[in-house]
Amino acid sequence: MPVITKISVQKKNKNRYSIFADSGKGEEYAFSVDEDVLIKYQLKKGMELDDLAVTEILYQDDIRKAYNLALHYLSHRMRSEGEVREYLTKKEIPEPTIQEAVNKLYKYKFLDDVEFSKAFVRTQMNTTDKGPEVVKIGLKEKGITGKIMEEAMLEYPFERQVEKAELLASKFVVKNKKDSSRILKQKLEQFLIRKGYPFRVIQLATEESVAEKVVEDELDALRYQGEKLQRKYSKWTGFEYKQKIKQALYNKGFSIELIDRYLEEVSDGEEDSFE
């Protein structure tokens, strides 16, 4: 049975120890262990080691290695259990060892999916323009589902969703002021859907923002689109010219009333345009 002959601190890692033993053929390197494992098994010079003991020691050392890797990974920011498992898997650590390391991380409160999820939702809410549906996708990608997700999403209240959606909508309306109210509303709804806001929030934000686009703004948008269409259909004349512009403006979402008003303006400016 091998007997420990020497224990020395490793030069490159002061928390690990090299174990040397003599099994009858002289002293030779046997294995290395973390300081915690060394203390746990009270390894010392003169101790006899059987195969079962060595197997158990090395298994516990593997767990400690995985635990230390996870601690380093967690030192940069909070992470979910799913992220830690994925990281350790990429390091080619066996699942049983990962499970033991994860249990240890929970024991010493280095992992807490509930607190992680709440912090994640708050961060996404306060630092991005993402709606709750996109935030949920982010949680799922980190392995958070079920009741933990539901509890975390309470950090993103309905009132805050509406506030953020209205801010996004107001900026969107300014950027797309050359569109008709109908087309603007359609584009805005699709924009907010992509951002992850639910229908009720989109409805409130859209109604509020599009309502601010007064008639004069709508007419300005129509004039802008009309001028482009005049150039597009410049080869046409008379009734056909007028009808093509009228149909195109209607397809762009402008009301017949405003279209007729615009065409009257054009007719007044160019009396022979539609003769």
TrEMBL record:
A Pfam family of this chain: RecX_HTH2
Main location: cytoplasm
Compartment(s): Cytoplasm
Residue ranges of domain RecX third three-helical in the record: 160-203, 216-263
RecX second three-helical domain span: 112-153
Keywords: Cytoplasm
Occurrences of domain RecX first three-helical (ranges): 66-105
Homology family: Belongs to the RecX family.
Annotated NCBIfam families: PRK14135.1
Function statement: Modulates RecA activity.
Protein name: Regulatory protein RecX
Organism, as annotated: Mesobacillus maritimus
